[in-house]
Amino acid sequence: MSCVICGFYANSGKLCFKHAAAAKNLVENYNVWKNAFNISFEEYLHSIIKNRDTGVWAADVARYIIESGDDSILQEQL
Ligand SMILES: [Zn+2]
């Protein structure tokens, strides 16, 4: 199986280790943002892409979820 985002080797699930780590951070950060800013998950993903401080790996994951509508890659990280 290869990463659905970059095509690199995926050890388990749909993501390579870099994108899996970014997806995990994304989920953890959302729990913080949700309480602080009261935003929806979709708004959060858009903020991640726009925010220049966000790592490129996290932006890849956010973009992938918006474009594909497939958020199952995040559930794998919970
Ligand atoms: Zn990847």
Describe the structure.
The radius of gyration is 12 Å and the shape is globular. 62% of the residues lie in helices and 0% in strands. Helix 1 crosses helix 3. The mean pLDDT is 91. The chain has 78 residues and is mostly helical. The structure holds zinc ion (ZN). Zinc ion (ZN) binds next to helix 1. The site of zinc ion has 8 residues, from helix 1.
Keywords:
single chain; 78 residues; mainly alpha; 62% helix; globular; binds zinc ion
User: Number of helix segments?
Assistant: 4
Which range best describes the helical content: under 10%, 10-25%, 25-40%, 40-55%, 55-70% or over 70%?
55-70%
- The domain count comes to 1
Bound molecules: zinc ion
Helical/strand content category: mainly alpha
Shape: globular
Using DSSP, what is the number of strands?
Answer: 0
Mean pLDDT: 91
Radius of gyration computed on alpha carbons? 12 Å
Please render the helix and strand layout as text.
Layout: H1 17-37, H2 41-50, H3 56-68, H4 72-75
Helix pairs in contact: 1-3, 2-3
